[in-house]
Write a structure and sequence with these properties.
The protein is built from no helices and seven strands. It is mostly beta strands. It has a single domain, classed as Immunoglobulin-like, CATH 2.60.40. The strands form two sheets. It has a five-stranded antiparallel beta sheet, with no helix packed on it. A two-stranded antiparallel ribbon has the order 2-5. A hairpin with a 6-residue loop joins strand 6 and strand 7 (113-126).
């Protein structure tokens, strides 16, 4: 989720995240639709594991301005043959998932253009059981 301060406009917005090698990208649900999207290849060995959302501009509405849900599955084994999750406990695993957001903001008070690079890390929790 991305929230911009109410009535503030940011331009040339790019949001990017890279899926861990052990996850297989399926599809994403994004509101509002970006100007352009780059999606990860559907392959455990793919070098393109990035999801990139580009917006010409986003205007803050005082809530969530962009909501992206990434749908994926975790196979029993990663490409190296290691277990992704324990097949006996199914305990949740936390993966540190990094994302970046870059946008331009022009101050209405001063007319100064700011380029806003933002990096954030969020935990991704998954619980699976294998049959």
């Amino acid at each position: 989720m991305v929230s911009v301060a109410k009535s503030v406009v940011v331009n040339n917005v790019s949001i990017a995240t890279t899926l861990p090698i052990s996850f297989q990208y399926l599809f994403s649900s994004i509101t509002p639709q970006p100007t352009s999207t780059t999606t990860p290849a559907f392959s455990a060995l793919a070098s393109n594991r990035q999801l990139i959302l580009n917006y010409a501009s986003i205007t803050g509405v005082g809530g969530n301005d962009v909501v992206a849900t990434i749908n994926f599955y975790a196979p029993q084994y990663d490409p190296t043959g290691a277990l992704v999750l324990s097949n006996t406990t199914g305990n949740p695993v936390t993966v540190g998932q990094a994302a970046t957001l870059v946008a331009n903001y022009t101050s209405p008070a001063t007319g100064v253009l700011y380029v806003l690079p933002i990096f954030f890390l969020f935990p991704l929790h998954a619980k699976f059981s294998f049959m």
